Amino acid sequence: MGFRFEDFVLDPERRELRRAEALIALEPQVFDVLTYLVRHRDRVVTRDDLLDAIWNGRIVSESTLTSRINAARRAVGDTGEEQRLIRTIARKGVRFVGEVTELSGSANAAAVDKPASAAPVGLPLPDRPAIAVLPFTNMSGEAEQDYFSDGISEDIITALSKLRWFFVIARNSSFIYRGRATHLRQVAEELGVRYLVEGSVRKEGDRVRITAQLNDVATGSHLWAERYDRELADVFAVQDEITEAIVAAIEPQLYAAENFHAQRKPPGSMDAWDLLMRALSHYWRVTRQDHFAAQALLQKAIALDPDYGKALGLLGTSYMFTAHMGWMEMAEAMPVAERAARAAIRADDEDAWAHNALGHVHLFARRFEDSLAEFETALRLNPNFALAQGYCGLTLGYCGRWQEADAAARRAIRLSPRDPYSPVYFGIAAYARFLGGDDEEAIRLAQESLRQRGDFVGAHRVLTAAAGMAGRMEVAHAALRELRRAQPNVSLTWIAEFMPIKLDRDRERYLEGFRRAGLT
């Protein structure tokens, strides 16, 4: 799709701007700025919009941004004084105000004096994973049900857009493929993406079946597929539930795929993104050695890009988790984690991982209200962020609000049931039930956590204390043996000093469970 305004023709596919038949030379970022403004001419484009679209969320100076806008103006014969086509809206942003005609592929080709049979050139991939959600196919045979399948697709696009680590194609671009028999590789090339989500919706009576699939077009592989069958009692609740489930499932698959691509690169060619992906592959394994490996990779990424908010946020989170597990001294972890978390927020205060990291720091510094505020901000930015949901539950538990903690942990489990951190969420739920005095349920949940991950320290701790309080001494003694194997430095003093339990009664009950199990 091309665009004509005045006597200019802008061709995003060929990355050309022509005036009459003359080609106008443009720097790549200037071309991208102009194209973005023309495509979004129906609204004011903010500075953050341009940073996300052109610089992939990286922070650049105001002068750099202004220079690119001024260069775009010069390219179309406009000036900062005249603002005939590109108008600055005070304290809001800029807007393309010229009259634009959209050209079809053949009309655009003719307009720029190119043969109509010329094959379109695919858009270049951005430097972060790019994904598009195609409109889900309505299989119901009822045209009036299109709204439901469209709603599923649009909600997935909106939810994925909150994952700022990914470049998500806007709805108006991906929806042009509705009803078109187009090969996925062609779609990916035309949209400039590596990943495509496609699916179908079939409504039959009072039930709905939704299928979804994530494709890596570069390799031709299917990364993930799932089917959802639901009662259609509340259409919008079903829509929300399935959207949450799809997005929560897609996110780790994208990380895994990106890590696979990074692993295939020679070490000398790795950039900060590749290092981050390799670090994530270690982070999700949830072991002491893997967290230390992740931290080393993240430090290298930050050395390449000191303002890399994503790497800083993950580094802060990893340091606090290793300290919480007893794998590192809190006095060693806390300063590094806090510096990284605050730097991450300075780099990008709308990145959920940055606020997640600072939430961890505040928790173990016993700044409970600040911790909850950061986790709540992370969840506002990404409501499908299971890790932040789980640790928000942990903070609520440490504050003595065990019912809310239990609900938050179970929501994290539902959001991401196949998550490598699922044992952690079960451990948090177990701790919440322990605080509520339900020792048997705490034991059951802790054992489920350990069934999934036998080396999870947190679950060993809760199981030891809950079994001790329940008088199940054989279970308590066995749990304590495993705990000492997983965390050799554990003691009553360590628990009292490093576990950020706000209320004296909760701390004393926890310690009493360990005493009964035999910990000194």
Task: Describe the protein's topology.
Elements: E1 2-5, E2 8-11, E3 16-19, E4 22-24, H1 28-39, H2 47-54, H3 62-75, E5 86-89, E6 93-96, E7 101-103, H4 105-111, E8 130-133, E9 137-138, H5 146-161, E10 167-168, H6 171-174, H7 184-191, E11 195-204, E12 207-216, E13 221-231, H8 235-263, H9 272-283, H10 288-304, H11 309-324, H12 330-347, H13 352-364, H14 368-381, H15 386-398, H16 402-415, H17 422-435, H18 439-452, H19 457-470, H20 473-486, H21 492-498, H22 504-517
Parallel strand pairs: 8-10, 8-11, 9-11
Antiparallel strand pairs: 1-2, 1-7, 2-3, 3-4, 5-6, 11-12, 12-13
Oligomer classification: single chain
The domain tally reads 3
- State the share of residues found in helices, binned by percent: 55-70%
Q: According to CATH, what is the class of the largest domain?
A: Mainly Alpha
Mean pLDDT: 84
Q: How large is the share of residues in beta strands?
A: 5-15%
Q: Which architecture of the largest domain does the CATH hierarchy give at level 2? A: Alpha Horseshoe
Radius of gyration: 26 Å
* Count of individual helical segments: 22
CATH superfamily placement of the largest domain:
Tetratricopeptide repeat domain
Q: Give a count of the beta strands, DSSP E runs of length 2 or more.
A: 13
CATH fold annotation of the largest domain:
Serine Threonine Protein Phosphatase 5, Tetratricopeptide repeat
Q: How far apart lie the N and C ends?
A: 72 Å
Sheet with the most strands, sense and barrel status: 6 strands, mixed
